Amino acid sequence: GQSLEQPSEVTAVEGAIVQINCTYQTSGFYGLSWYQQHDGGAPTFLSYNGLDGLEETGRFSSFLSRSDSYGYLLLQELQMKDSASYFCALTSGNTPLVFGKGTRLSVIA
Amino acid sequence: SQTIHQWPATLVQPVGSPLSLECTVEGTSNPNLYWYRQAAGRGLQLLFYSVGIGQISSEVPQNLSASRPQDRQFILSSKKLLLSDSGFYLCAWTPPGKETQYFGPGTRLLVL
Question: Could you say which of A2, A6, A11, B17 would form a disulfide bridge with A98 (CB–CB 3.0 to 4.6 Å)?
Answer without folding.
Answer: A2
